[in-house]
Amino acid sequence: MATQKVTFSLPKALMAQFARQVPPRQRSRYVAEALAAKLQARTRLLARACEIANRSRQIQLLERDLDALRDELAEPWNEPASR
User: Fold this and answer.
1) If you ran DSSP here, which 8-state letter would residue 25 be given?
2) Of 7, 39, 43, 75, which one is least surrounded by beta carbons within 10 A?
3) How far, in Å, CA of 24 to CA of 7, rounded?
4) Any idea where the domains of the chain sit in the sequence?
5) Residues of 19-55 as b/e, b for ≥16 C-beta within 10 angstroms?
6) SS3 29
7) pLDDT of 76
8) What CA–CA distance (Å, rounded) separates 61 from 66?
């Protein structure tokens, strides 16, 4: 797997705890795994929020109203130029 070096800042107390608990040769892998887990959790939360929103009656009505718009009304620049 290709890697890329990055630089970021951490609170001193967090970095001290990290340095105490994770051996130097395991730190990159530890951070990568922790970041991957956090991003996966965020993706799951977003998907769940979308599922809940899609069940909302208000959202369904809004989508119906938007779907009912004719393309010509939604995109007036497609109108032929008047002479």
Assistant:
1) G
2) 7
3) 16
4) 26-68
5) eeeeeeeeeeeeeeeeeeeeeeeeeeeeeeeeeeeee
6) helix
7) 63
8) 9
Nearest CA to 63 out of 75, 74, 54 is that of: 54
Amino acid residing at 7:
T
For 75, the 3-state DSSP assignment is coil
Query: CA separation (Å) from 30 to 12, 17, 41?
Result: 18, 13, 17
DSSP 8-state symbol, 2: -
Q: Which amino acid is at 64?
A: R
9-68 pLDDT, tens digit each: 999 999 999 999 999 999 999 999 999 999 999 999 999 999 998 889 998 899 888 888
Q: Which of 3, 34, 42 is nearest to 18 (CA)?
A: 34
66-78, pLDDT tens digit by residue?
888 866 565 666 6
